[in-house]
Write a structure and sequence with these properties.
Length: 398
Amino acid sequence: MRGEASVLHADLDAFYASVEQRDAPHLRGRPVIVGGGVVLAASYEAKARGVRTAMGGRQARELCPDAIVVPPRMDAYSQASKDVFAIFRDTTPLVEGLSIDEAFLEVGGLRRIAGTPEEIAVRLRARVRAEVGLPISVGVARTKFLAKVASAVSKPDGLLVVEPEGEEEFLLPLPVERLWGVGAVTAEKLHRIGIRTVGQLAELEEATAERLLGRAAGAHLHALARLRDPRPVDTTRRRGSIGSQRALGTRARTADELDVILTQLLDRLTRRLREHDRVCRTVVLRLRYGDYAKATRSHSVRHPTDRTAVLLSVARSLLAGALPTIEQRGITLIGISLSQLGRVDSVQPELPIEWDDGARLDTVLDSVRDRFGAASVARATQLGRDPGWSTPVLPEHE
């Protein structure tokens, strides 16, 4: 027996743009683009005209000249996320956050006190709309994978339940791009041998899929195509890292511009570390070059830290090592992750303790930003510059 369709995948629709339309009534029903140089989000009215996330601002305005372009408001998006996640956790204690705007919820044990999974999903959507003012799509299925696909198919502002007996009928006709982990490169490999639907991939032998896509990826995707996904909703997993990134478009960037963007990303992430009493040991620099090839560089410090100056120094060193390649190939995305996280109270202070080492400055700046907003104080190098809006991540689950 396959079990009950009791996993919910809840995903806020066009999240940033929906928050803007919620807070500014004159934007409702109109095409909205969040971000100028690069599209961070687009309302469904703009998406209908071909605008997509990470698209260059000029191309987006050519496709949708009547779009209203608004600057991002990360504080507003963070608060909306917190409000929605509070509703998730009020619905069930079994919540696994995936990002700032989506989560899995396990509701199988709530039938007697809260009704069927579908009834719970209906109430969840109604609460998010009434209490937070945002549309949300929900997929309900037996596995996390199918629930995620169902929520995507139900968009915008929809609800789709995939019962166990209807799983094959639902999944197999869908394009292979719907599989979790199939990007443009993998899709092209499959298309070249005539595989365009999930059902066609499921008909392959597993060994053939592994030979075509690589052992790990082939086995994973073949299992999903054959409806095998044993992963439970995981509420205990702590984030091994936190990160932030910025799409840069295609124009050339100077070393100074990249340094400003890098500094902004580090400032945001180290503030988040301190907010959640975390320290880290490893800094990871992620790059996407002008030819869209990706690269990763990392370095670990000897002792875990939450100090902005220390971690920024490491990040700058990693970027300096990549600059020759960037000059040759260009750059379209830069990102930073802080990994090997630990609790601040688990770190022993080293002697001699240097009281004027920057920790006090970090604390003061955090307090100012908490009281007056993230943009209230900035480094001198950032004055008059692009604010460098980045994609935030959901803070660690405590």
